[in-house]
């Protein structure tokens, strides 16, 4: 925030000085003849302090108290407003315009009270175990619902109770079979790089039953949540760890695989930007094509199985060779689900493409039906005309038959 100072000499009463945030009653302050009264007003919210924040009982109070100069401007500003400046997880010069910071850690708001550059504050955020368990139960329910739909499309069912058995509309659809196959693979995945007891869904109490549906074992999952919630987190999400705190995850791609990697940094320049680096390459950090570099950001190329992994190396300026920095990548089940099915569900993805194809097929089929209907109508009209002509001819023949019969009868009578 900012701080304003005013000085007055002689007899002076502040009268009523009020603000919503400070709620100061100025009548409590006065200066006797020959004494100097010094008043400081500070705003700690992080916003610029302006005199129109205050209401004075006398129009000349601001001037008489020394807040304003002869031109009506601020006379003495001890501290101008400035942004809050933090170092977060080793990243320096993180600035915010307010002392209420809510965009650094998801679900966490920091209230900055005062600056102390020499003090490091460790923030422990407790997990909401009930919410975590509910999310896992919802995951199992969604999985089971999808399995039910797939089975409904694959089984022979008498849908109308008329004795006619039929398959679902998508029974022979290759996309649906592909989805079913990947579902089975992922829920059965065991991540051997994780801690024992947290390597698979079954080990944390999300068990696959004989009908290939997920069931929640409350006793097991409650125990796992209470004893090692981080183990459950690692099972579901991507986790990139390194004993070197200067290395942090920024992003990864569909192609990034789990594994242990060695990051080698050649050097940094005067601004801390990386000059050369590699993954699983020469220890001197020379460029071998395994990564690309932009400032302090390292992106793995398809020359390594870490393809698409994006790391931040927050090293200091003018560093020499930093060799053998271990980086472990563990991709959890939810992360695998996302990448495997993002191609299906994203805009213009597989499902959208298949829907468009089926709709086009429906249009083509309807066009063929319309063409057949038109031909049938033409055939009907043709046959109708022919039958009318036939009936007319038959009627004429019947009339002629009756005339001939009458003639024969007359001849017989004569």
Q: Care to describe what's here?
A:
The chain is built from seven helices and 19 strands. The protein is of the alpha+beta class. The strands form seven sheets. A four-stranded antiparallel sheet has the order 12-19-14-15, with no helix packed on it. Strands 13-18-17-16 form a four-stranded antiparallel sheet, with no helix packed on it. Helix 3 packs antiparallel against helix 6 and helix 4 packs across helix 5.
Mind sketching the topology for me?
Layout: E1 3-9, E2 12-13, E3 30-31, E4 36-42, H1 61-64, E5 77-79, E6 84-88, E7 91-96, E8 100-105, E9 108-111, H2 129-154, H3 174-187, E10 206-208, E11 214-216, H4 218-227, H5 229-236, E12 239-241, E13 247-251, E14 259-268, E15 274-279, E16 291-294, E17 297-300, E18 310-313, E19 322-330, H6 333-345, H7 350-413
Antiparallel strand pairs: 1-4, 1-5, 2-3, 6-7, 8-9, 10-11, 12-19, 13-18, 14-15, 14-19, 16-17, 17-18
Helix pairs in contact: 3-6, 4-5
Summarize this entry quickly.
With 414 residues, the chain is of the alpha+beta class.
Shape: elongated
Number of DSSP helical runs: 7
| Main sheet summary | 4 strands, antiparallel
Helix percentage range: 25-40%
- Identify low-pLDDT runs: 1-37, 51-59
Spatial order of the strands forming the largest sheet: 12-19-14-15
């Amino acid at each position: 925030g900012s701080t304003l100072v005013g000085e007055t000499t002689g007899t002076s009463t502040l009268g009523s000085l009020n603000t919503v945030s400070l709620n100061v009653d100025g009548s409590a302050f006065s200066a006797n003849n020959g004494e100097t009264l010094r008043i400081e007003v500070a705003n700690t919210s992080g916003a610029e302090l302006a005199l129109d924040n205050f209401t004075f009982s006398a129009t000349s109070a601001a001037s008489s108290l020394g807040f304003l100069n002869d031109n009506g401007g601020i006379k003495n500003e001890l501290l101008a407003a400035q942004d809050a400046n933090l170092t977060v997880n080793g990243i320096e010069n993180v600035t915010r315009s307010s002392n209420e910071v809510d965009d650094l850690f998801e679900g966490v708001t920091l209230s900055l009270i005062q600056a102390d550059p020499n003090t490091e504050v460790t923030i422990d955020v407790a997990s909401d175990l009930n919410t975590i368990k509910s999310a896992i139960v919802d995951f199992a329910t969604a999985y089971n619902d999808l399995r039910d739909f797939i089975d409904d499309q694959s089984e022979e069912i008498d849908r109308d109770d008329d004795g006619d058995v039929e398959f679902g509309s998508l029974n022979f659809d290759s996309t649906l079979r592909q989805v079913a196959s990947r579902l089975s693979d992922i829920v059965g995945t065991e991540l051997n790089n994780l801690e024992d007891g947290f390597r698979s869904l079954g080990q944390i109490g999300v068990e696959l039953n004989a009908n290939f549906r997920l069931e929640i074992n409350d006793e097991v999952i409650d125990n796992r949540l209470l004893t090692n919630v981080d183990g459950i987190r690692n099972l579901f999400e991507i986790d990139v760890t390194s004993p070197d705190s200067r290395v942090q995850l920024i992003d990864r791609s569909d192609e990034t695989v789990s594994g242990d990697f060695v990051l080698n940094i050649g050097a940094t320049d005067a601004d801390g930007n990386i000059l050369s680096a590699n993954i699983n390459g020469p220890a001197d950090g020379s460029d071998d094509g395994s990564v690309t570099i932009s400032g302090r950001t390292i992106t793995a190329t398809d020359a390594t199985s870490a393809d698409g992994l994006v790391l931040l190396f927050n090293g200091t300026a003018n560093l020499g060779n930093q060799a053998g920095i271990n980086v472990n990548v563990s991709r959890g089940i939810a992360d695998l689900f996302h990448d495997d099915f993002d191609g299906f569900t994203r805009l213009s993805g597989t499902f959208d493409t298949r829907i468009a194809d089926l709709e086009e097929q429906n249009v083509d089929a309807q066009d063929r039906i319309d063409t057949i209907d038109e031909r049938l109508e033409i055939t009907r009209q043709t046959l109708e005309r022919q039958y009318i002509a036939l009936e007319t001819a038959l009627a004429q023949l019947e009339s002629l038959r009756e005339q001939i019969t009458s003639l024969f009868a007359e001849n017989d009578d004569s």
